Amino acid sequence: MSRPSKAFFLISSLGLLAGLSGLPAAAGPTGTAWGYNSYGVPGLIDMPGAFGREDGELSYGVSHFQNQTRHALTFQISERFSASFRYALLYNIRRHPGGTVGPYRYDRSFSVQYRFLDEGTYRPAFAIGINDIVGTGIYGGEYVVASKTLSPQLRASLGLGWGRLGSHGGFSNPLGVLASRFKTRRMRTSDGLGGSFNAGEWFHGDAAFFGGLEWRPNDRWRLVAEYSSDDYAREDGAAFDRKSPLNFGVDYHHNDRTTLSARYLYGSELGLQVTYALNPKQPRMGSGLDAAPPPVVPRAGLAGQSPDLDDSALIAAVRTALDKEGLSLHGLARDGDTLRIQIGNDRYPIAAQATGRAARALTGLAPAHVERFEIRLTEKGMPVSSVLLRRADLEALEFHPVASDLMRARTRIADAPQSLAPNGGHFPAFTAALEPYVTPSFFDPDSPLRIDAGAAATARYEPMAGLVFSGRLQQKLAGNLDKTIRPSTSVLPHVRSDGYLYAKGSDTSLTELTAAWYLRPGRDLYGRVTFGLLEQMYGGVSSELLWKPQNSRLALGAEVNWTKQRAFDDMFGFRDYDVATGHVSAYYQFDGGFMGQIDVGRYLAGDTGATLTLAREFDNGWKIGAFATLTNVSSEDFGEGSFDKGISLTIPIDWITGKPERRAINTTIRPVQRDGGARLSVPGRLYETVRGQQASALDASWGRFWK
């Protein structure tokens, strides 16, 4: 690969942020960090601070000076805990301090910070952090830092650093009083595979002080001065001359999401940084651009309507009313004073909103003697939940100041294992669409961003409830996913590391062609069998069983697959590799929107092990998570990165557009894609399919019932 252009690298990075900077912003609360440092950590210029950002904030920053361009993606996981992923391009650095100089390299690393003590009247806030917690060690360092707000405009920070943050003005480690082993630190040369924790070296070796001052004369500007404890031993004298430990910077907050920074660094260099931040809890379009819901029609307005309305006429009227709301009628039945309907929802990402719209529509159509409505929510043709509510409550509470709370208190939500008779006229159903697509690849070992774009034709046919035939054909129009990739050197079967060959194989790709059967084998049980071309790289058969009670935090699942690797042209051919895989899974919903998942089983390369996923989910559909997989494949056999790990993002499209839409943008960022711990990607896995329609999800978003 030829030497990359630093200017192009920086300009393309800033271009990503230019498009984002025009998005509407929302003001953040006081008491948070005033900015991000060049590593993407809340803090000063190069040094960290003890204050975190606003809870839930997600930021992306690009910083550059002389020999380094750093990309940083940072998530404020909670009020106290933040994590960052960094991708850096470094020129003319030494493999280790005092060693030979190399031309350039890409480096990927993770950092974490936890504030363990809040600021008080006289007490500063205290935080502890680790840089390069998983990586090559180039940026490896640990710290404890205290920050104090001296006035509404002035803050001070003072910290103690180890590793890279203990390299200038260092002294014998004070932790040596606990054990002599803390006084020495083994040098990491970055020649290894990277991706290991090396926890035995944390807070070891010499320590050094760092600190700084921040002055914010108004909400737009911040001036920063810091004393850095990083001696830049890998770069000093090779890429630039470090003449001073003092750094100076100025930040301009263009708006509450975009910040521009300029710095004078180490007595010899100028630096620039752009940071864009958003918070998933703050929708771009406020309450949204939804069309107004149908009004509740009191029974007094139904005078003259026959109490014995013909079933076929009622079905036709309900079907038409639901169609206007983006809902489909799967079945209808009357039982004395109760009217039951079973619906499908292809429009609203929040099931409570779909339920409320269906209930409102029924008030204008149901005979006057009907006292209760039961609305059965379905997914993939399976009945999931039964929502039973009283018509009188709809009539009385529509304009009540606390209508949502009162309505939920009077509504019963239960499991719906049985379907109503399919008399709603929905089946058979056929839908098709032509839409643009974008397939990105972020931060691989040789390029920060590769992307393909084109047009995709999709089709779905449902001959009956629970049986779904679907397909997706993509035509690439532009992109470079097939470029700048090193051939795989994996000693394992190439189950993922040859992925770029699929991008090279053909511009026309049949990425999915499946038949899937969804069923309810029993109470709280859900089943799925999928056959066909399951994903871009594999075809075969997949079966799954899920146990997920309505109000349970815990769910358990099992999946068994037999799959065969597809030919590189992404059509109907196959290669000479097949494998049986499968996992047992446990899912748990913690308080505060946090979710944990563990999958134990056999992966595509035949290796066995487990994947741990931790994620934070927001009521509006945003989801930000991290995962790590350890199998019986050794670090040496796995190759660069040592084990599979990464970050996943789910961004609901309706959050961007303000219009109701169930689709979402899903992307995964891996430091490197290898073959160990690789799992089959199957459309329509059950946990994500059904839980949004269950009582726990309905409760969390019940405020949308009246929307």
Give a structural overview.
This protein has helices at 6-20, 311-324, 351-363, 391-397, 403-409, 499-505, 635-638, 653-657, 686-690, 695-700, and strands at 58-65, 68-76, 81-94, 101-117, 125-134, 141-151, 154-163, 207-215, 221-227, 246-253, 258-265, 269-278, 327-335, 338-345, 372-379, 382-390, 412-415, 429-444, 447-464, 467-479, 508-522, 525-533, 538-547, 554-566, 574-589, 594-602, 608-617, 623-631, 644-652, 664-669. With 707 residues, it is mainly β. Among the domains are: 6-278, Beta Barrel (Porin); 299-426 and 696-706, GMP Synthetase, Chain A, domain 3 (2-Layer Sandwich). Strands 18-19-20-21-22-23-24-25-26-27-28-29-30 form a 13-stranded antiparallel beta sheet. The chain has a 12-stranded antiparallel β-barrel with strand order 1-2-3-4-5-6-7-8-9-10-11-12. It has a 5-stranded mixed beta sheet with strand order 13-14-15-16-17. It is globular. This is Exopolysaccharide biosynthesis protein YbjH. Keywords: Signal. InterPro entries: YbjH. Residues 1-27 form the signal peptide.
Q: What is the C-alpha radius of gyration, as a whole number of Å?
A: 28 Å
- Compute the separation of the termini in Å: 55 Å
- Major beta sheet, strand line-up: 18-19-20-21-22-23-24-25-26-27-28-29-30
Largest sheet: 13 strands, antiparallel
Report the average pLDDT across residues: 90
Question: So what's the CATH class of the domain at 6-278?
Answer: Mainly Beta
- Strand content range: 35-45%
